[in-house]
């Protein structure tokens, strides 16, 4: 045989064999490292979400009475499906009833409001995003505390309409729009966007304004479900007075 009887060819064969073996081992190691890196990235993202949750709780404690701050729980989840270019948009999270999620809960991202929980299974949640004309959120102008509401009628995934700001209120491009304390879904002060365009006609009692959304839905990969632990008590006490009126 050539390999066993010819010294030159024998050396060439084993050198080539060692090279191929080393290359295959390196390819196998690179593949293993790639999948391990993907798992590490997922773990880091979850850890970051947990750290943001702890930081948010600390920030709430600085600005909100402890009895209010303690009413909110934040549960992070990975976005596994989403739309943002349709006339009505949604996303799916990899968490569900087993993690305490229920229909109607608010959902936020790292940079602001995302939407509300629409449906839930044991391990998955669908969310109607703020990029949906049927979603209206009680809001306020941060600088003045003026109540307003936001509703997506721009058909632009980067902007949203801001409504019901009275004409006597000074409003400027660059004003921040955030959630108000008049809804039980989101904590007050969660960022929604920044006023980008505004118009006030002579006959209109309200501004026509649009805000640039703080959340970029095209790159949204993680979201956080907000659980208001006091909402049941609040609804119960309010239902009594409503029934009496």
UniProtKB/TrEMBL annotation:
Which UniProt keywords are given for this protein, alphabetically ordered? Cell shape
Q: Does the keyword GTP-binding apply?
A: no
Q: Which organism is it from?
A: Moorena bouillonii PNG
Could you tell me the Gene Ontology terms of the biological process aspect for this record? Answer: regulation of cell shape
For the keyword Ligase, the answer is no
User: What Pfam families does this protein's entry cite?
Assistant: MreC
Residues of the Rod shape-determining protein MreC beta-barrel core domain: 79-226
Give the Gene3D superfamilies listed for this entry. Rod shape-determining protein MreC, domain 1, Rod shape-determining protein MreC, domain 2
Identification of the protein by name: Cell shape-determining protein MreC
Annotated Gene Ontology cellular components are:
plasma membrane
What InterPro entries would the database entry show? Cell/Rod_1 (IPR042177), Cell/Rod_MreC_2 (IPR042175), MreC (IPR007221), MreC_beta-barrel_core (IPR055342)
The record's comment on protein family reads:
Belongs to the MreC family.
């Amino acid at each position: 045989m050539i390999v066993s009887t010819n010294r030159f060819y024998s050396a060439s064969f084993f050198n080539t064999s060692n090279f191929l073996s080393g290359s295959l081992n390196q390819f196998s190691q690179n593949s293993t490292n790639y999948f391990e890196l993907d798992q590490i990235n997922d773990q880091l993202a979850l850890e970051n979400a947990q750290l943001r949750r702890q930081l948010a709780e600390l920030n709430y404690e600085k600005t909100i009475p402890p009895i209010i701050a303690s009413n909110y729980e934040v549960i992070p989840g990975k976005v596994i499906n989403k739309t943002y270019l349709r006339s009505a948009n949604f996303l799916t999270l990899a968490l569900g009833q087993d993690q305490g999620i229920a229909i109607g809960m608010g959902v936020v991202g790292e940079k602001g409001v995302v939407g509300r929980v629409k449906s839930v299974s044991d391990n998955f949640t669908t969310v109607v995003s703020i990029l949906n004309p049927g979603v209206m959120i009680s809001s306020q102008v941060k600088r003045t505390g003026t109540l307003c509401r936001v509703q997506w009628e721009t058909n632009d995934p980067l902007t949203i309409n801001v409504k019901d700001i009275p004409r006597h209120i000074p409003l400027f491009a660059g004003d921040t729009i955030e959630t108000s304390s008049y809804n039980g879904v989101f904590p007050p002060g969660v960022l929604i966007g920044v006023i980008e365009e505004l118009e006030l006609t002579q006959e209109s009692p309200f501004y026509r304004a649009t805000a640039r959304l703080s959340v970029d839905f095209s790159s949204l990969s993680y979201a956080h479900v907000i659980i208001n632990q006091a909402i049941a008590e609040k609804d119960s006490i309010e239902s009594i007075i409503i029934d009496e009126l």
